[in-house]
Model the fold of this input.
Amino acid sequence: MPKKPVSAEPLSSGAAVDLPSTFEEAMAELQQLVSQMESGELALEASIGAYKRGADLVKYCMAQLDKVDNQVKILEGDMLKPFAAEGSGDEA
Done:
């Protein structure tokens, strides 16, 4: 399926950045960039561009995760309770 870029606010530079329309597309592109950079198949300038693109994708993904986290908190409302790990040593 072709990627559908979405124009967004600038994330790491002064210019607008085209971002994927979904979290999953952003993660897939990020994984592809990491693979290319780790393989050494990119020239130095291309590696710098890939790094900048990756940084923008990471920021986008983190923002998406924050939105979802906030939505879950709203949906759960007062059902949220502190997490107590089993065997935390509070038992006497």
